[in-house]
Task: structure prediction
Amino acid sequence: MRQCSIFFVLVFSLFAYTLTASAHADLSSSSPAQGDVLETMPNEVCLSFTTSIDPTVFELDVRTQGGGSILKGDAKINSNKNELSAALIPDASGQIQIIYSVISKDGHPIKGVIDFSVNKAGVVEEIETPTKEEVMTEEKISNEDMNMTLVSEEKLSINDTEQMTSSVSTLSAIIKFMYITSLLLLSGLLIWKSRGFQTRFIPASQLLHLALLFLFTWSQARDFLTVFDHLTWGDLFLRTEVGQYWTAALVVTVIGLYVVGRNRSIDLSFVALLLLLKSLNSHAVASDFPCVTIGLNFIHLGLAAVWIGGIFILLTLWKQGEANTFLPVFSRAALFSILALSVTGTIYALILAPSIDALWTTTWGYWLSAKIVTVFGVFIVGGFIRRNMRINNDFTNKKFLYFDSGLAILILLIVGVLTQLSPS
Result:
């Protein structure tokens, strides 16, 4: 019964924790709305989002079927940072498109299009003779066909951008997997080093993490520049919140090359700063209780680092014939880490109140189910390892260790994919 309870807590907590991938600033409403047919041009357009957006970088344009902008002045953001508005030139008509690009609070670029039309009354009624009416009808049909073509071309251009963003998501997921793995590995090795377990791979893991951080930052920045037409590299890294966190992470990682290894306090401070920067640049900041979720995310990363770093140390000690001295300590730490991860995930569930329907109705849910099954496999493998240790007072069957390592890699791969998906 106790094992079943632990399993269901784990399933629920993992669902809740990964749900933070849905915290993007989606459009909640717009005025005019999609598909509206109006008799007069509104004085302004207004877009409302589900969460706050970055107030320093956003793009909003309203265009006619000919591609001309009808904005009257610059777009503005409200004090709550969740609403964009802009005044419009009043004499436009025909097919109109609202095109927007924003950065969500959790650091994701979002681009969208809203179509509406303005059909001014009284034009056809002024035509008196049948011949003129027929001519006007033919011209109107011709103009409508041309308008539809122009609108389709505009949509095609935007859809091309969205398709390009989608096509790089697989590459972005792989790069993010490698970056997160290097972050957890470096942090875990330094945490275990502070407990007295030495490893000669810390300098190499620092260089690896720095290289993958550069790669990750480049891939994310490329996605941003694809969505925003007028955003420069300098503005992205210095003006946006997400860019500032990228810059800070790069600076801290470079400084770490010179200060890590001096003493235990510096090493742990370096780890804490890296994990804090990652937590501040994550989905946790977009919740209703960011202080709580950021703290939980920080703890979650630290616990995962203990597990990942411990597996790596165990593999290296195995080749030296010294694994049995480390395995009992690691086994207890790994069990505590996984159970603690379940607790943090459960708190996430209470805060975010997710819907379980997404688990079997979305692509995101299928990947999440795969993650749940994989983590349950970690419990099974860990149980076999601890059972062998109790029976034999030793552990010589390293195939379970390879299974555990493979499951850890698989979980990180799935996490890399999940961060690119949305439950909706």
The CA atoms of residues 130 and 136 lie 10 Å apart. Confidence is low (pLDDT under 50) at residues 1-23, 122-168. The longest helix spans residues 130-167. DSSP finds twelve helices and eight strands in the chain.
